[in-house]
Amino acid sequence: MEKAPDVGELTPPDRTLMGPGPSDVHPRVLRAMSTPLVGHLDPSFVEIMNEVQELLRYTFRTDNQWTIPVSGTGSASMEAAIGNLVEPGDTALVPTNGYFGGRMQSMAERAGGEVVHVDAPWGEPLDPADVEAAFDEHSIDVFGFVHAETSTGVKQPGVSELTDIAHSHDAYVIADTVTSLGGVELRVDEWDIDVAYSGPQKCLSCPPGASPLTLNDRAMDKVLSREEEPRSWYLDLSLLEGYWGEERAYHHTAPVTNVYALREALRLVAEEGIEARWERHLDVAGELKSGLEAMGLEMNAPDEYWLPSLNAVRVPSGVDDGAVIAHLLDEYDLEIASGLGDLSGEIWRIGCMGYSARPKNVEYVLSALADALEAEGYDTEQVTAAPSDD
Hints:
Its cofactor is pyridoxal 5'-phosphate. The model is unreliable at 384-390 (pLDDT under 50). The strands form four sheets. The chain has a seven-stranded mixed β-sheet with strand order 2-10-9-8-5-3-4, sandwiched between helices. The chain has a three-stranded antiparallel β-sheet with strand order 11-14-13, with helices on one face. It is built from twelve helices and 14 strands. The termini are far apart. It is of the alpha/beta class. The protein has helices spanning 27-33, 43-60, 74-85, 99-110, 128-137, 159-168, 217-224, 237-244, 256-272, 274-294, 321-332, 359-375; strands at 16-17, 66-72, 91-95, 114-118, 142-146, 148-149, 154-155, 172-176, 195-197, 209-215, 310-314, 334-335, 337-338, 347-351.
């Protein structure tokens, strides 16, 4: 190549992000990312690492010593959890009720595990009776479940019941909390979860790049006593322990700016208060849900399993889901997303997470969606009358 590319100044569109992630980033987090870099072993950065770990413990509701941000996206913390806890020859039980259960399966198989399933339709949570039956039928070493399924808008209830079943069979529990951490009630210690992983770009409203992970002592003992090294050097927690543990020895160059961002995002969580933050997400998402239903739209998940941070909305008959998404993007700089896997083309996924979970954003998305639906010939004024008592 003789001539240098003629690339202009970076000018991405100013979108309102109401999809399944990323969510809108708080201005304070953006400012934190613009502060000067230091080295990843600088004494000042070591102190920042300590603060991030303490803030993560608060947000996860855990006292786990081994609580870190993994350098990478949420899929990196997911693979760190599964790839370290699942050893060759282990049997892993994973769910079939959403897209990310399939990703659990793939990662467990790549780690050398044998995979069995606990089945449930997309749009429904796992039934503890089915989980119990799977444990009775198989000798299971690791049980993974999705607390907040981004592909279906379903929140898994009764987490403690699931962990009790697993621990009564001496199995380890891995929880996918990517779309719940910082926005939906999550109590790692109280619910007896051995390992939980998440992503920063959902309810924490932080750019991707440093992804939360926590392991209790029982799980970390399994990791450190493995006979065979994990297949990933980069995500080997026994090596990362040297960097994020007391030694602070070099392992890799941490994404310093992303750690700054995560620290500020977690400071916002602590300032608001974790329980107040859960309540805000519930209240604001409730306004969104009410507005959608007032337009005659149907939620994918029943009320008892509804996930406030990710609202899965059924696409009405005769409406082109992709055309609505394109209309919102082109006319309103507003992002929502289509369905994945079994629900592709059948739902829209509307996030209500972190800094995006604000009343003005709800008003905006409802108004814009009404316009996009009307352009598709859908009557947004339809309201189903309640049955008369007469």
